[in-house]
């Protein structure tokens, strides 16, 4: 190759998108990636021309719904309902009279009415109840406004109504010094549900969580709290994934100010707070939600069959509509600014990205990520969402729940990506459950284990987790329950030598450490699983006689000094502390396989200058186990899963230091490796 040819080749490579440069298999699809970039650029240009900026576009909630106008002294109520015939504001302020307060239609399909203080000051007050009566070709229905800030349920009729929420004294934030990069170098995420966080058989509250659970999360070392089920949903058992009121804080847990208090307290403790946001679908209920709001059969959602999710029994947004884009983007801005959330975990992104919603589809070809099955309108919306969040809060954390593995999802749009920071490593928990269900301990394939835990897209960060709320739902079991079975009820006294319990506790620790150290650049744990919470999750419903027994967390198990749960909690705390202190999950850190020994069931690797030694063997211990390490020197044990404080057998002396020696021309260490044990070593 001459100099001119070489120069041309370099220029051609440099002209490629960074995403394609890193993954040459994407070269045939670069036109699609560039088309996505161009469409995003064009849409933002249109928005800027009309609204001034993307962030100003995302202010629909300040126009729509019930908003107080301090200059004109009164409330504006506005609602987008282009196909409706008439709208009326109803509530206790006008005796629920469906004719008393009509709205006027604007040219853009937005209806409005002004309620002046001089007439309504004493009638439309804090806590007043209201709805909007929408008259369509199909008749009239009382509806909840689309951008409703608070919905409350009548305890007797179970009917939801909007509630005016305008406290005399606004909440006073004291978190001005909290900065995400100062406290979250790598995310250690604690996934939690407010309602089930109490031990009693009832629904927990924001205040209880702030006072009782935040100290636990801080003590455990987690630096991110991911909150589920915050957006108002009519059915408690939906886990918050069938949202009705996207701008309303779920009133079943308390008031908006109490949620703000929780987030403020989390920030005081150095914990970032992420919202589990559901923009992938919405509840189909018409009484509480957005479905068929203006009688057109579509409006916010696709019309006909395309507007219905076949598996979730819910409604699907039409992301091509500017008004839907604005509604959802305004929703993100609202949660960021009004409640100081530090980012989002976007639920159900696979369903958004593909017309088939990922149902029954095995993703094995790049064609599937760039062909006609992809909903390009959804791709554009997600790019807009990421762009908006970056504009409003540059350091915010964006996590995508996608099981398809779409290339570029977690790369910036200017590189050819969609713009998220992390994707959930959804294959990892599925692998652990499959292994425990279908394989004997003796048959674990460590090559397969290594592949599953390290198989992720280069340059795209992953949140690793051994189990989340999905694995604990009724019909399945937590990892602790799979490992311990009935021993979790019968043999958890700390002095009980039961072999099944010993095996379960040992593997619980190994599974978590292997997941954290190999699986990604962030780590997630579901509330209570850090100490091996014994049971699944099941919310009150008719099928369980409306019981809260499985919709709670038994903290007393972890706090009881006579039980073995304390060992799992201590190990989780030590594991997180080790990972944070060593910057283990630093995205720049590479993982190097050092040894996979199927005979002795030993796996050894190096990451960020730490050496990890796992023995999964059921009973074999090796006194002089020799293996290669990349760097010569003296090594000490940072973490030993077999420590007595972690419920182990204390077979290894942690005070011993290990010095490398030369053998076969490489640096080696010799260790006593005990069965079902994990060691983490650092060079001194």
Automatic annotation (TrEMBL):
Transmembrane residue ranges: none
SUPFAM superfamilies: (Trans)glycosidases, E set domains, Glycosyl hydrolase domain
Record flagged with keyword RNA-binding: no
Molecular-function annotations in GO: 1,4-alpha-glucan branching enzyme activity; cation binding; hydrolase activity, hydrolyzing O-glycosyl compounds
Record-annotated Glycosyl hydrolase family 13 catalytic domain positions: 212-572
SMART domains: Aamy
One cellular component (GO) term of this entry: cytoplasm
Keywords: Carbohydrate metabolism, Glycosyltransferase, Transferase
Cross-referenced PANTHER family: 1,4-ALPHA-GLUCAN-BRANCHING ENZYME (PTHR43651:SF3)
Protein function: Catalyzes the formation of the alpha-1,6-glucosidic linkages in glycogen by scission of a 1,4-alpha-linked oligosaccharide from growing alpha-1,4-glucan chains and the subsequent attachment of the oligosaccharide to the alpha-1,6 position.
Descriptive protein name: 1,4-alpha-glucan branching enzyme
Lineage: Bacteria, Pseudomonadati, Bacteroidota, Cytophagia, Cytophagales
């Amino acid at each position: 190759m001459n100099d001119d040819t070489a120069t041309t080749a370099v220029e051609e490579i440099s002209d490629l998108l960074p995403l394609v440069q890193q993954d040459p298999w994407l070269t045939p699809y670069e036109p699609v990636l560039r088309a996505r970039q161009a469409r995003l650029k064009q849409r933002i240009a249109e928005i800027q021309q009309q609204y001034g900026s993307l962030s100003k576009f995302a202010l629909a909630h300040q126009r729509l719904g019930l908003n107080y106008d301090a200059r004109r002294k009164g409330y504006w109520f506005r609602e987008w309902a282009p196909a409706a015939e008439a709208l009326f504001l109803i509530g206790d302020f006008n005796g629920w009279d469906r004719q008393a307060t009509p709205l006027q239609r604007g040219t853009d399909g937005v209806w409005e009415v002004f309620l002046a203080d001089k007439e309504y000051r004493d009638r439309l007050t804090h806590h007043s109840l209201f709805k909007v009566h929408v008259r369509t070709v199909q008749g009239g229905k009382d509806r909840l406004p689309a951008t409703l800030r608070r919905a409350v349920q009548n305890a007797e009729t179970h009917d939801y109504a909007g509630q005016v929420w305008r406290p005399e004294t606004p909440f006073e934030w004291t978190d001005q010094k909290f900065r995400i990069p100062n406290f979250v170098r790598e995310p250690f995420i604690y996934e939690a549900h407010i309602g089930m966080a109490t031990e009693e058989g009832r629904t927990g509250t924001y205040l209880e969580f702030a006072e009782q659970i935040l100290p636990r999360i801080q003590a455990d070392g987690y630096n991110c709290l991911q909150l589920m089920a915050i957006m108002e949903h009519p059915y408690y058992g939906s886990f918050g994934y069938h949202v009705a009121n996207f701008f309303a804080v779920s009133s079943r847990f308390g008031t908006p100010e109490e949620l703000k208090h929780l987030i403020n307290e989390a920030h005081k403790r150095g914990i970032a707070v992420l919202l589990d946001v559901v923009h992938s679908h919405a509840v189909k209920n018409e009484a509480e939600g957005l479905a068929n709001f203006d009688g057109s059969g579509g409006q916010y959602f696709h019309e006909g069959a395309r507007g219905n999710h076949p598996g979730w029994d819910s409604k699907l947004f039409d992301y091509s509509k500017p008004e839907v884009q604005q509604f959802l983007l305004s929703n993100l801005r609202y949660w960021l600014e009004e409640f100081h959330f530090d980012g989002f975990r976007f639920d159900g992104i696979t369903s958004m990205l593909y017309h088939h919603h990922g149902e029954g589809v095995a993703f094995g070809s790049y064609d599937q990520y760039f062909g006609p099955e992809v909903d390009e309108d959804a791709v554009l919306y997600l790019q807009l969402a990421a762009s908006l969040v970056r504009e409003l809060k540059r350091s915010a954390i964006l996590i995508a729940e996608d099981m398809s593995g779409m290339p570029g999802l977690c790369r910036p749009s200017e590189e050819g990506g969609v713009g998220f920071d992390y994707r959930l490593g959804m294959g990892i928990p599925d692998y652990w459950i499959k292994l425990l269900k279908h394989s004997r301990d003796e048959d674990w394939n460590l090559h397969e284990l290594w592949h599953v835990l390290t198989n992720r897209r280069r340059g795209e960060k992953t949140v690793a987790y051994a189990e989340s709320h999905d694995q604990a739902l009724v019909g399945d079991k937590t990892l602790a329950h799979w490992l311990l079975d009935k021993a979790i009820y019968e043999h958890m006294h700390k002095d009980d030598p039961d072999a099944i319990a010993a095996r379960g506790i040992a593997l619980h620790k190994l599974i978590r450490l292997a997941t954290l150290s190999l699986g990604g650049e962030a780590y997630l744990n579901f509330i209570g699983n850090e100490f091996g919470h014994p049971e699944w999750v099941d919310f009150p419903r008719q099928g369980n006689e409306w019981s809260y027994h499985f919709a709670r967390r038994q903290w007393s198990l972890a706090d009881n000094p006579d039980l073995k749960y304390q060992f799992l909690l201590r190990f989780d705390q030590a594991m997180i502390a080790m990972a944070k202190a060593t910057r283990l999950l630093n995205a720049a850190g590479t993982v190097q396989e050092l040894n996979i020994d199927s005979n002795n069931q030993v796996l050894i690797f190096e990451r960020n200058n730490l050496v990890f030694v796992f023995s999964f063997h059921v009973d074999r211990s090796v006194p002089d186990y020799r293996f290669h390490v990349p760097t010569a020197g003296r090594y000490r044990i940072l973490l030993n899963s077999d420590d007595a404080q972690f419920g182990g057998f204390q077979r290894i002396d942690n005070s011993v230091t290990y010095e490398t020696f030369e053998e076969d021309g490489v640096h080696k260490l010799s260790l006593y490796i005990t069965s079902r044990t994990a060691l983490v070593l650092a060079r001194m």
